[in-house]
Design brief:
- Helix content is 43%, strand content 15%.
- The chain is an alpha/beta fold and 185 residues long.
- A 6-stranded mixed β-sheet has the order 1-2-3-4-5-6, with helices on both faces.
- The chain contains 8 helices and 6 strands.
Length: 185
C-alpha cells in the first residue's frame, strides 16, 4: 500500500473498457483500489451476468465494501461468512460487509471481526455506505501496513471508526458526510 487512494463506487453493469482501463492504471501503481458495487437490481438485469462483472472488477481491487443486501443479491442463500470468503478468494485483501443497523463484518484472509454499529437516531440513511467506505479509505491511506497484515485489533478500529462516522451521516438529512473536525478524524 502507499500512493494515493482510489475509491471506485458504481452500479453494475458498467461501461466495460473505460472502467477496466482505469482499474488497470490503478493496478499498475501503488494506489489503494477500493470498490463499492452499489447493486441496483432494477437497472442491472441478469443476476449471473452482474455477478460475473462484479467478480471481474472485485478481483482487480484491494478493498471491497458492500452491504448485506448487495451480497445477498449477488450470492443468494449463502451466509455472510460464505459471501465474504468467496470475495476474498477473488484476491481482494479486505472485505467490509455492512448490515444496516446490525454489526458490520471486516475480514482479510487471516482475521475477521464483527463490529457493533451502535445506537443512533436515524434521520436519513442516504450516504451511510459512502461514509463507511470513505472512512476505510481515509484510515488505510498512508498507514503503512499491508492489508493482509491487519489483525483483529486493526480491523476493529477500522470498523469502529467507519461505523461512528456513518452514524453521523445517518443522524442528519441527505448524504451529508462528517467533516474531520466533527469527530476528531
Amino acid at each position: 500500500m502507499g500512493g494515493n487512494p482510489c475509491r471506485f463506487d458504481c452500479s453494475i453493469p458498467l461501461p466495460g473498457a473505460r472502467v477496466d482501463s482505469l482499474l488497470q492504471r490503478g493496478t499498475d501503481s501503488s494506489a489503494l483500489l477500493s470498490f463499492d458495487p452499489n447493486i441496483r437490481p432494477s437497472i442491472i438485469g441478469d443476476q449471473q451476468h452482474a455477478l460475473a462483472r462484479f467478480e471481474s472488477l472485485a478481483s482487480q481491487v484491494d478493498v471491497v465494501k458492500l452491504s448485506d443486501v448487495d451480497a445477498d443479491w449477488l450470492y443468494p442463500g449463502q451466509s455472510a461468512e460464505a459471501q465474504i470468503d468467496r470475495i476474498l478468494r477473488l484476491g481482494v485483501d479486505l472485505v467490509a460487509l455492512t448490515c444496516g443497523s446490525d454489526d458490520s463484518i471486516l475480514s482479510t484472509t487471516s482475521a475477521r471481526v464483527k463490529v457493533p454499529t451502535g445506537a443512533v437516531l436515524v434521520s436519513d440513511t442516504i450516504g451511510a455506505g459512502d461514509t463507511f467506505m470513505t472512512s476505510l479509505v481515509h484510515d488505510l491511506h498512508g498507514s503503512g501496513p499491508q492489508l493482509q497484515g491487519l489483525d483483529e485489533v486493526a480491523l476493529t478500529r477500522l470498523g469502529e471508526n467507519a461505523s461512528r462516522r456513518a452514524a453521523i451521516t445517518v443522524s442528519r438529512a441527505g448524504a451529508d458526510l462528517p467533516w474531520a473536525g466533527e469527530e476528531g478524524a
